[in-house]
Amino acid sequence: MLKKFQRWKKEEQIGERPLSDRKKELLNYEIPNHIAIIMDGNGRWAQKRSLPRIMGHHEGMKVVRRITKVANELGVKALTLYAFSTENWKRPKMEVDFLMKLPEEFLGTFLPELIEENVQVRIMGNKDELPSHTLRAVEKAMNETKNNTGLILNFALNYGSRYEMVEGIKKIIADYEQNNLKLDDINEDCFSSYLMSKELPDPDLLIRTSGELRLSNFMLWQLAYTEFWFTDTLWPDFGEEDFVEAIEDFQNRGRRFGGI
Ligand code: IPE
Ligand code: IPE
Ligand code: MG
Predict the structure, then answer these.
(1) Residue 206: which CATH number?
(2) Tell me: the pLDDT tens digits for 38-95?
(3) The predicted structure's pLDDT at residue 1
(4) Kind and range of the H or E element at 145?
(5) What residues act catalytically?
(6) 222 domain residue, yes or no
């Protein structure tokens, strides 16, 4: 228990310690099993540079690659990335179309590397509404990485937590009506097993970039006891150093889960 309490003095953190040392040091403490990230601020990043918003999304894609690599190196088991919410369809068609092409571009470029690094690609979200070209690209990646045993890279694509829960409840009722489930079987673990994240543990750490302090319909059930970490940095500017800092802060938290 002691190791998680006051990992070091804050002053040391401010000192110029090389990132490689900080990364090594992380391994002496608890590495979060599951990290979830709300990758926000792509549009503002582009607007600040007088570029079209989609350029921010394109830049953000490169950050996904970098952070996946570091997470895998550090031995994180699962990384869930909020890529497109059920509410993001409200955006202009041109932006939505661009976002729906990004998985193909990302996987077209990086899938060989992900395979080599033993990463398993997954998606969580309403697949029915995705354009067929988007679904094809992610299904190919899932298929080609399904026997890998390293980091689970889970994209929340057309994901909304309320949708997920309502769908879960409908499936519970269907199973109940078909006598596959008894009323007494329904408990918290059972409910979790009806969610799209059923194969993953709840996130230990949630990161949101761009200074917004809200969940925007992301994993409302699963984040019940997750540690939150917010930064003003916009997603395309988010680097390895920010990721390491988030984990350092996580290692300094005293998680109590309601106990003392
Ligand atoms: C996050 O960046 C990416 C998606 C929601 C797809 P935004 O596009 O939300 O960027 P801002 O918040 O407008 O700056
Ligand atoms: C949340 O960001 C969704 C993703 C990062 C994919 P938004 O930019 O859509 O969230 P709001 O609208 O600011 O709450
Ligand atoms: Mg946003």
Answers:
(1) 3.40.1180.10
(2) 999 999 999 999 999 999 999 999 999 999 999 999 999 999 999 999 999 999 999 9
(3) 42
(4) helix 132-145
(5) 40, 88
(6) yes
Kindly give the distance from the C-alpha atom of residue 12 to the centroid of ligand 3, in angstroms, as a whole number: 33
Q: Which of 212, 215, 219, 220 to mutate to test the pocket of ligand 2 (most atoms within 8 A of CB)?
A: 212
85: Cβ below 6 Å to ligand 2?
A: yes
Domain of residue 214: give its range.
30-160+202-231
Domain presence at residue 98: yes
Length of the chain: 260
Please tell me the total count of domains within the chain. Answer: 1
Counting as low any pLDDT under 50, the low residues of the chain are 1-2
Structure confidence at residue 5 (pLDDT): 52
Place of tokens 């917004």: 212
Sheet holding 78-85, edge to edge: 120-124, 152-159, 78-85, 34-38, 205-208, 227-230
Query: In the prediction, which pLDDT does 13 show?
Result: 58
Residue 21 identity (one-letter amino acid): D
Q: What is the pLDDT of residue 103?
A: 98
